[in-house]
Amino acid sequence: MAQLPLCQLTKDQRFEGFLLVRSSDQRTGGNGAKYLDMNLADRTGEVNAKVWDGNVQPPVPGSVIKVRGTTLEYNGRLQLRVERIRDAAPEDQVDLSTLAPCAPEPAENMLAELVQTAEAFQNDAIRRITLHLLARFEEKLTYYPAAQRIHHAERSGLLHHTTGMMRLARKVSDQYPWLNADLLFAGVILHDLCKTEEMDSDQMGVVRDYSREGLLLGHLVLGVTRIQEAANELDIHSEEVLLLQHMLLSHHGEPDFGSPRKPMFPEAEALHWVDMLDARMNEMQAAIGKLKPGVFSEKIWSLDRRLYRPLEDDET
Asked: Is 307 inside a domain boundary?
């Protein structure tokens, strides 16, 4: 019997099957009892799961487990109460391609779009630096997520985020044709490339932890360093190097979000807002997709608010 996809689960439904562990933690409830809190996924979606047994150890993120349980609704969101749990065994012959949440487009198509964009740059320095760094990180780009748990946390999610930003940046460039499009588009391509060094992801796009370099430096500083390395290798010494470095350093917008400098020229400012918009729309889409019409979400810490899914047209 085929396993029911998570996207088809409804309240008070039995479920038994194999799922990918996105995160798992042993926690302590208000009564002092320990329990296991997990986020489990297949390629169609993700569900929060609870094991109310303090003796069960958290499975490793990125591993595959078999669970049996019943769905319930908590604060308008579906949750799985797990009764039995075990690690997947080789004899289970689990098809991993059915479990990994992934970007909605093939990685090779998204990567080709970015390369073609860079190849069309009129500015020689910007074109050469961008293509050099795309080639350097090409292999990891095919499967890396954009984040561990927040936006675009999926296989090839980094490419999904970057191509989404690129398409938005093209609209911004059309609206403000006086912007340096080469500079803006290069900033889009380069801004998060070093997340491939900041995080430790497996081929399924599951981040187990942050790397030593990621924790000590972060992808902004790593990105600035890689741009300088590329410029040195290509013997480029023009101002474009400094401009690209500033765009990476400032694209989070505020010191509270990790940027030591605010954007100091229009293309850097545009990059910040394009990044913010694409990331937040992805977070909101994922959260709203788990709600029924007319229901509010729990507070989403990364957005510092609750979200509401409006009633459908036929319910208003």
From this structure: no
